[in-house]
Amino acid sequence: MDLNKLIQETFNLESDTQILDTHGPGQLEGWDSLGHANLMVALESTYGIAIGLDEMISIETVADIKQILKDKGLP
Fold first, then answer.
1. Which of 18, 38, 42, 44 is the most exposed place for a label (fewest CB within 10 A)?
2. Do residues 2 and 40 touch, judged by C-beta distance below 8 A?
């Protein structure tokens, strides 16, 4: 699944919501502390990866998520 689609579904965003690499918590509706936890669970289950606590805490933008996915060998 495309990362932007996953973010849209996790936060129940409209399909036309623009998601930028610079977006982070507080910049997209639903991306608060609980939303962040839900997004981490969605990433782990969708991509079959484990995200460590340090990685979870380090995520401040969509670009950070993309880098973690890349570091874990995902395109």
1. 18
2. no
The number of helices, as runs of H, and strands, as runs of E, in the chain is 4, 0
The model scores a pTM over 0.90: yes
Quote the tokens at residue 12.
């129940």
CA 1 to centroid of chain Cα atoms: 12
- The answer to whether 36 and 25 are in contact (CB under 8 A) is yes
How many residues comprise the chain? Answer: 75
Amino acid, res. 30: G
Say how far residue 44 (Cα) sits from the centre of its chain: 10
DSSP label at residue 14: -
